[in-house]
Xyloglucan endotransglucosylase/hydrolase
Amino acid sequence: MARRFLAVIAVVLALSQAASAKPWLDEKFNTDGTVRTGYDASGQQVVTLSLDQRSGAGFNSDEQYLYGKFSIQMKLIPGNSAGTVSCFYLSSGDGDGHDEIDMEFMGNSSGPGHPVVLNTNVWVNGDGKKEHQFNLWFDPAADFHTYTIIWNPENILFKVDDLFIRSFKRFDGIPYTSSKPMRLHATLWDGSFWATEKGKVPIDWSNAPFNVLYRNYYANACVSGGACHSGSDGWMNRQLDGAEWGTVKWAERNYMSYNYCEDGYRFPQGFPAECSRY
């Protein structure tokens, strides 16, 4: 009887936590495609994006931002996710001269030797050939992991859990994304033409629908045309210290699979100017 009573109490507590949890998706985003919401045992809202042959899915911020710190926890597609692309990114739009800051997870074939690749990229005035790609050193489908973008006037920082893996710095005379407000997006789509082994492995639709879970969204940012939220001083001037540069070098040394600053085939006339300044 006591065990049954405790079980009932636990269910009541879980339901009350869910009812009181902040529904960040409905408050801050509009959606496309198949997007489902629920709550986990701790009361956090969990958003599921689904991809099938009819459509991908995504959520897009109502507000536009000019600088900020953005993070979310994601649990990626288990098993054979080849051809899929799961994203967390900022973009000023779809025009030829748009700016964008990307964290894109490119699906893989299941089994050893096929890591999920995280593609980080920065677009400035429509030029997006600035990729650093990393083979993730954990299974991103086994549990939630935290992915963070910090964007300020000095640099753009990419972070996985507690580790910084990239800093894209601002240099005099080199274009930098500093004037175009951007919306925050999360999307799941068919990238068969590109995502896995340069498009050699397309989606196996027999495994559809493919689902990616998002939770614990966080943003502290300056709203376009408005004020910065309190606490912006924690990220507005944020740059990496010596130890944090050490984690970037660790990631580059052990897990980087592509660096645009080493792709002579792509840049036969010479590497972009920032490549010589790091």
In short: The chain has a mean pLDDT of 91. Helices lie at 2-20, 24-28, 233-236, 242-255. The chain is about 15% helix and 40% strand.
